Amino acid sequence: MTTRAAWLVQHFYSGTPADKLAAAHRLHAVFAARPEDARLAAALDELREHAEALAAHMRSLDFGALCTACASRPDGGCCSAYMADNVDAVLLLINLLLGGDVRPVGT
């Protein structure tokens, strides 16, 4: 018998990037239909503020040029397509809820 934890790992943290994206879209259909959830809305607002602060800090350090150079290397770096296997459905869901354009590379 599968435990709940094992089920969660299997469905949200394992599989191909396409599997994880499909799981994120299924979750998004549930959570996006609940705009009245004040706790979720507040958490997303706070996360959005932190993401904007991080982006501003990275711009001040000129990380855009550094990230571009790193991502273009064969080993990819943290912003590359190589890292897609290391993302999970929960992170993809958060990006979808924040309005991100989440899709496979090349589409």
Describe the structure.
The chain contains five helices and no strands. The protein has 107 residues and is an all-alpha fold. It has one domain. The chain is flat, with a radius of gyration of 16 Å.
Topology (SSEs and partners):
Blueprint: H1 4-13, H2 17-31, H3 38-60, H4 63-71, H5 89-97
Helix pairs in contact: 2-5
Weakly predicted, low-confidence segments: none
Major sheet characteristics: none
Shape verdict: flat
| Helix segment tally | 5
Structural class, from helix and strand content? mainly alpha
H and E string:
HHHHH
Number of E strands:
0
Distance between the termini: 38 Å
Number of domains: 1
Approximate helicity band: 55-70%
Using the CA coordinates, give the radius of gyration. 16 Å
Roughly what fraction of the amino acids lie in strands?
under 5%
Mean pLDDT: 84
Properties at a glance:
107 residues; mainly alpha
Report a brief summary of the structure.
Helix content is 62%, strand content 0%. The termini are far apart. The mean pLDDT is 84.
